[in-house]
Amino acid sequence: MENRAILDRYHLKESEYGITTGSAATAAALAALFSLNGEVKEVKINTPLGEVILDVKHSEKLNSCSGRASVVKYPYDDPDVTINLEVVAELILKNEPGITVKGGDGVGTVTKPGLQVPVGCPAINPTPMEMIVSNLESHLPEGKGAEVTIIVPHGKELAKRTLNPRLGVVGGISILGTTGFARSMNLKSYKESYRCQIDVAVAGGYEYLVFVPGNIGEKIAKQLLDIEEDQIVQMGNFVGYMLDEASKKGVKQIMLLGHAGKLIKISAGIFNTKHSVADGRHEIIASHAALQGADQQVVGQLFKSTTTEDMITVLEENGLKTKVFNSIAKKMKQLCSSKFNMDFEVTIVNMEGEILNS
């Protein structure tokens, strides 16, 4: 691929970048148009960062005024679930100006307010939509228009591995991207995908939210609390970022709920809870145990424990479990209240969903 200028400009190795689903959809749509004149092997598209040439997996002329083509979101060094995804576009040439872009099989439909796309529309974000339209406009014959349908084979199944079900995007994945390019381990895009949950909740009128680390926390929250699903927000490891975004959006109160192994890190001022960034679980539990009267032998047992669940067992055996987690929860509320303009509640649980603090 002749994309050296993009790589050089952003100091990237070829293994460190890929294309967005928006770029794949744009390239497929353009290839479908070009297929009216014969087989297409590659296309050049314009993105917000510049021109890029992409390979076309398949193209075919369906009849004198329609074509079909597909582009693969090629692999790069990133855990993105859409890597190697094939994006298909079917195009019908129209005799009147104007371009209509539809979502076909495997492209989700927005069902809740708060996202960048209106309710009832296909989940094709503004930048990809503009890219598809502008790239086609540059190559359509004068006086002609087009109707484009974007299709993602297996998109319905893949969507289950994304946050789309939580965001009210049903029936498939979203066509995303703000630059046309996806960088390896792009934390910005990960954070924004989590933040969308807050946007949906606020658009629904909720001022009280429950923040959980992930799927386990969400499951436990549904078991313990009488709340609407849209009030539960998965924050991943991005605790500080998500709390800051919630504060900016006007959320008044947050319950932090989750397994002790993740949640208690907040009590030590750790607002990115990824294990490789910071841990401190042994130190946190041991220090609060000592504050609650644990002797040196118990503190030593805590430090020798392998897992958080093992430490919980040690505390329970010594009559310290509730006292220690009450102390940790109190510190969490103090730290969060001092950093973010919201009221906080804390519910710390074990793997079975038992509440550890009172």
Automatic annotation (TrEMBL):
- Catalysed reaction(s)? Co-precorrin-5B + S-adenosyl-L-methionine = Co-precorrin-6A + S-adenosyl-L-homocysteine
SUPFAM superfamilies in the record, alphabetically? CbiD-like (SSF111342)
The pathway entry for this protein reads as: Cofactor biosynthesis; adenosylcobalamin biosynthesis; cob(II)yrinate a,c-diamide from sirohydrochlorin (anaerobic route): step 6/10
Root EC class = transferase
Keywords of this entry: Cobalamin biosynthesis, Methyltransferase, S-adenosyl-L-methionine, Transferase
Mention one GO biological process in which this protein takes part, according to its record.
anaerobic cobalamin biosynthetic process
Q: Which Gene3D superfamilies match?
A: CbiD-like (3.30.2110.10)
Query: Could you cite one Gene Ontology molecular function of this protein?
Result: cobalt-precorrin-5B C1-methyltransferase activity
The keyword Methyltransferase is annotated on this UniProt entry: yes
Q: Which Pfam families match?
A: CbiD
Give a yes or no for keyword S-adenosyl-L-methionine in this entry: yes
Q: What is its EC number?
A: 2.1.1.195
Q: Which family does it belong to?
A: Belongs to the CbiD family.
Note the HAMAP family from the entry. CbiD (MF_00787)
Protein name per the record: Cobalt-precorrin-5B C(1)-methyltransferase
**Origin species:** Methanobacterium lacus (strain AL-21)
